[in-house]
Write a structure and sequence with these properties.
homodimer, 255 residues, alpha+beta, Jelly Rolls, Arc Repressor Mutant, subunit A, 2 domains, 4-stranded antiparallel β-sheet, 8 helices, 11 strands, 42% helix, 20% strand, globular, disordered C terminus, DNA-binding
Chain lengths: 255, 255
DNA sequence: CGTTCGATTGAGGAAGATCAATTAATGTGG
DNA sequence: CCACATTAATTGATCTTCCTCAATCGAACG
C-alpha cells in the first residue's frame, strides 16, 4: 500500500520504514515511535480485522493484550441484567485488554468499528520482554496510566456537562485524538450511529441528533454534502468555546 | 494498638503479624497477603494521614505511588474551567497515583477522608523491585487493571441507572468493598456528605437525600439512631434487588 | 447557647426522555 | 438500474425525572 499523501483518518497500516515519514504530523511522532519500539521488541503477530469483528469478549480467558496499529474500536461493558454501555473508544497506538489482567478474564467486549490492524501480544511474553527492555515496561505503564486518566475524564464529562456540551466535547476529543496521531481533523467520519454515540455519552439518540443540529446551526460544525456521518470541524477551538458557553449560564454543580 | 475484635470498617493499621488473624474474614485474606508481600519487598515509608490531608495534587510532579493500608480516600478530577468531580473512592489495599505515570504529573487530587496509613512507594524503586520480584509486577498490573475495570463500571452506572438505583448501587459497591477487605457491612459509616456522594454519582445532594429516604422507607437500608451518616444494611442483596426494581418496567399492581 | 453546617422535604420548573411521524441513506432482489 | 425494504437520522409534541429554590430541622461546635 502506497501512502505518500497526508495521513487520513483511516490510519493506514503503513510499513515500519514509513513510520518516520508521517508528513507534517509531528504530533503523530510519539505514537509512531512507540509503535516502532513495540514492533521491534515484541515482533507481534499482526492481525487484520474488519467492522464488527470481536477482538475479545467479556468472560473470555485473558491471555493477550492488543496494540492497535490502525482502525477504530469500541469497548463495551455488559451488566448481569443485560445493560450495555460503550465505555471507551480506541485508536491507533492504544492498547486493548488491560481489563483482563486482574481477573484472568476480560471484563468487557472489544469490537472493531472499521477495518484495521492489531498486534497480538501475549501478556506473558510481554512481561518477559519488559524485564529485558525496561523502556518497554515504561510504555506499558504509560498506556495503562493514560487509560485510567482518560476514563476519569469521561466520568467527569457525563457527570458535569449538559447534553449539548457532552456532544461537543465528544467531537473535540475525537478530533484531538486524531490530531495526536497526525491525522486530519477538519473533516472526520463518525463511525458510530447516533444511538452508539448516545449510549457512550449517556443520552438518547434523539438528544445527540438535536445537539449536532444545534452545533451545525451555530456553525461550530458542518455536515458534508452527502451523509451526516461526516462532520466538518473548521476550528476545533470553536467546540471548546461551545462547551464553555453551555456551562456559562448556570454555575458549576456542587461547591 | 491492640485489635482482637472483628475487623471494623475503620480498617485499623494492624501489625503484620496480625494480618493472618483477620477473624472470619477469609475475604480479606487476599488483600492482606498482597499488602504483606508489598511491605516485605518494598519496605515502604509509612505515613499517617488525617481527614482532609492531600496525598497529591493535580499538576504536582509524579514520583510516588501510594498503597493504602487503612483509611478512606477520594480522587477528585479538576477541569480547566473549574469543574470538580469525585471520580473514585479508595480503600485499604488500593493504590493511588497511577494517573501520574503517563504525563509525569498527577492529573487529579487524592484526599484522605479519614485517618489512615499510606505506604509511600517511589515509582522508580518499585520498578527496580519488580525486576527482582516478578510477582510484584503482577500485583502492580492487577491493581491498575482493577482500577480500569472499575472506572468502566462507574461510567456504566452513571449512564444507565436512574438516580435511586445509582445510590443503591453506590451503597452496594461500598458494602462489597468492605466485605472484600473483611470488614463489617451490616452498618457502614458514609464518610462523605450528601453533596460529595451526589457529585460522585452525577446528581444533586437533594436527589441523594431523597433516594436514601426512599431506600429507608422500603426497609432496604436503615438509619442508625443517631446521625444519618451511619447506614444499616441488613441484607446487601436487597440493594441489588432494589436496583433491578428501578430498572424493571412499571410494576403493575395485581394481575 | 447561639451559630453553622449538613440533611430533609416540598413546590415549581427545565433538561432531556419518550413517543410518534417524516425523511434520508443503505441495502436487496428482480 | 430500479422498486422496494430496511435501517438511520431528523424533528415535533408530550411527559418524566431530576434540578433548582426555599423553608425547616437536627447535629456538631466553639
Amino acid at each position: 500500500m502506497l501512502n505518500t499523501a497526508a495521513p487520513s483518518q483511516t490510519a493506514p497500516a503503513m510499513p515500519d520504514v514509513a513510520l518516520a515519514t508521517l508528513g507534517n504530523a509531528c504530533a503523530g511522532r510519539q505514537t509512531a515511535d512507540t509503535l516502532k519500539l513495540l514492533c521491534e521488541q515484541l515482533r507481534p503477530q499482526r492481525r487484520v480485522v474488519h467492522t464488527g469483528d470481536v477482538i475479545y469478549q467479556a468472560g473470555e480467558r485473558f491471555g493477550n493484550l492488543y496494540i492497535l496499529n490502525s482502525g477504530f474500536f469500541k469497548i463495551v461493558n455488559l451488566s448481569a441484567d443485560g445493560r450495555e454501555q460503550v465505555v471507551g473508544l480506541k485508536f491507533r497506538g492504544d492498547w486493548l485488554g488491560f481489563d483482563g489482567i486482574a481477573g484472568s478474564r476480560y471484563s468487557c467486549d472489544a469490537v472493531a468499528m472499521d477495518t484495521g490492524e492489531i498486534w497480538v501480544v501475549p501478556y506473558e511474553s510481554l512481561l518477559a520482554a519488559c524485564v529485558a527492555c525496561p523502556p518497554l515496561l515504561q510504555v506499558l505503564h504509560a498506556a495503562m496510566s493514560r487509560e485510567i486518566a482518560h476514563d476519569r475524564d469521561s466520568l467527569m464529562s457525563v457527570c458535569t456537562l449538559p447534553a449539548d456540551a457532552r456532544v461537543a466535547e465528544f467531537l473535540r476529543h475525537w478530533a484531538e485524538s486524531l490530531a495526536e496521531r497526525g491525522m486530519r481533523t477538519d473533516e472526520i467520519t463518525l463511525r458510530m450511529t447516533r444511538a452508539e454515540i448516545g449510549n457512550y455519552l449517556g443520552m438518547t439518540l434523539e438528544s445527540v441528533s438535536r445537539a449536532l443540529s444545534r452545533l451545525a446551526r451555530d456553525k461550530v460544525i458542518g455536515f458534508a454534502t452527502k451523509g451526516r456521518r461526516d462532520v466538518q470541524i473548521p476550528d476545533v477551538r470553536a467546540l471548546t468555546a461551545f462547551v464553555q458557553r453551555c456551562l456559562a449560564p448556570a454555575p458549576t454543580m456542587l461547591q
